[in-house]
Specification:
Blueprint lengths: L2 E6 L3 H16 L5 E7 L3 E3 L13 E3 L1 H6 L2 E5 L1 E6 L4 E5 L5 E5 L2 E4 L3 E3 L7 H4 L6 H14 L10 E5 L3 H18 L6 E5 L11 H14 L1 E4 L4 E5 L2 E4 L4 E3 L2 E4 L3 E3 L16 E2 L5 E2 L2 E6 L4 E2 L13 H19 L13 E5 L5 E5 L4 E5 H15 L7 H7 L8
Parallel strand pairs: 1-2, 1-9, 2-5, 9-21, 11-12, 11-17, 12-13, 19-22
Antiparallel strand pairs: 3-4, 6-7, 7-8, 10-18, 14-15, 15-16, 20-21, 23-24, 24-25
Helix pairs in contact: 1-7
């Protein structure tokens, strides 16, 4: 009887965990290991591109790849982990509840936007956290051109000045001009709690974000928090108002709560604090990866961020280590010492940095070329070719 590695989630971490596990089983000429992926759909949804227009095109079908590598796909939504019985309860497309047993389990169920209890945001706000919500925002924006022109119609408020907020805010001026005409008066306002633009980044990167914002006409409200959102805009915590037909929340995510019944440490973002091999302490047959894992990337204190850059490598290590454990092999401690940032800045271009200190290497057109190469090619699934896919899934191979 085959032993099963069950992976929950088909995002970057889940997809690469499956391919990596299949790779090691293949290299060891072991056909007694089944690799199974449980997720709502057999596709990779390219979340880093959800700020773009035509968001429906930002998916990749995983069925050809999984078929080529003998990876089983199970359509369903995971609801509960029964660690005592080594099984996962899930809901099928028909809304039936059933379970599937596992020998090794990899949690790659990702993260979700956190609203922090802001009044009215769920009813009147938008976000680009998931494919369906990003599509809802796109449909809303496209529909605005049929409404009477007004300052509120032409204004978008972006709540949160982190990576996602910056990319969306700098993309919006050109999208709004396309919708309303090149001579229309549009406004994009970023509301940010911090005291400086891009406060999480290096001074060199902050300066570029500020320069791009100024050139594109993106306004920043610093030291500002959202009190409430309504149908006509937002009220800030200082009592001031911004009238806008579109308010988009981008401020913060938390790990999926799946596995909350496990007795294990989680960080402030809800991620499991894992061992170097990405196991959840106290559960030798359960691994956490991607946005579900609080993992050290090196020996100098850095930890993986909730980005596809880290999710890809975390997935490769988790899949390899789960398979290695079944095959009686030593696992590999996760390491990802190289860190880069490539931030899209709309019509201004993009900026590329290297290192945790974010040294700027490319800007404007050159940065944009690299950004497009990364988000449109490099982070997509490998071809449905065994040799190519397994070469890419090697956790010790350099990821560019």
């Amino acid at each position: 009887m085959k032993q099963r590695i069950l992976i929950i989630g088909s995002g970057f971490a889940g997809m690469w965990a499956a391919v990596s596990a299949a790779r090691l089983a293949y290299l060891q000429n072991n056909d007694a290991v089944e690799i199974a992926v449980l997720a709502p759909q057999p596709e990779l949804r390219v979340r880093p591109r959800f700020y773009e227009a035509n968001v429906a095109t930002t998916t990749a079908d995983l069925q050809p790849l999984f078929a080529e590598l003998d990876i089983r796909f199970i359509t369903g939504h995971a609801e509960r982990i029964d660690a005592a019985e080594n099984r996962v309860w899930y809901k099928t497309l028909q809304s039936d509840t059933t379970f599937i047993p596992y020998d090794k389990l990899i949690l790659a169920s990702g993260s979700h936007l956190h609203h922090f209890g802001i009044k009215g945001i769920a009813e009147y706000g938008f976000d680009i956290d998931q494919l369906d919500t990003a599509q809802r925002l796109e449909d809303h924006l496209n529909g605005l051109k049929n409404q009477p022109e007004s300052a509120a119609r032409n204004t978008v408020v972006v709540c949160g000045g982190g990576f996602t907020g910056i990319e969306l805010a700098t993309e919006l001026p050109s999208r709004l001009k396309t919708l309303f005409g090149p001579h229309s008066k549009t406004k994009v306002v970023v509301v940010e709690k911090g005291s400086v633009i891009g406060g999480r980044y290096s001074e060199a990167l902050r300066n570029i974000i500020r320069e791009a914002s100024d050139e594109l006409g993106v306004e920043w409200r610093l030291n500002a928090g959202i009190e409430m959102v309504d149908a006509e805009g937002v009220t800030l915590q200082d009592g001031s108002r911004i009238n806008a037909s579109t308010v988009v929340w981008t401020a913060g995510v938390k790990a999926n709560p799946l596995g909350e019944n496990l007795t294990a440490d989680r960080d402030a973002l809800g991620r499991f604090v894992v061992s170097p091999e990405l196991q959840i302490p106290g559960y030798s047959n359960i691994y956490a990866t991607g946005d579900m894992a609080h993992a050290k990337t090196d020996d100098v204190g850095n930890t993986a961020l909730m980005t596809c850059q880290h999710a890809i490598q975390l997935g490769k290590f988790a899949g390899h280590n789960a398979a290695a454990s079944l095959l009686g092999m030593e696992g590999l401690p996760y390491r990802q010492q190289n860190y880069v940032t490539c931030l899209d800045l709309g019509a201004w271009g993009a900026v590329y940095t290297e290192g945790w200190d974010q040294q700027v290497k490319l800007v404007r057109e050159e940065g944009k070329k690299l950004k497009i190469a990364i988000t449109n090619e490099l982070i997509y699934p490998p071809k449905a070719d065994r040799e190519i896919a397994f070469a890419a899934a090697d956790p010790l191979a350099k990821f560019v």
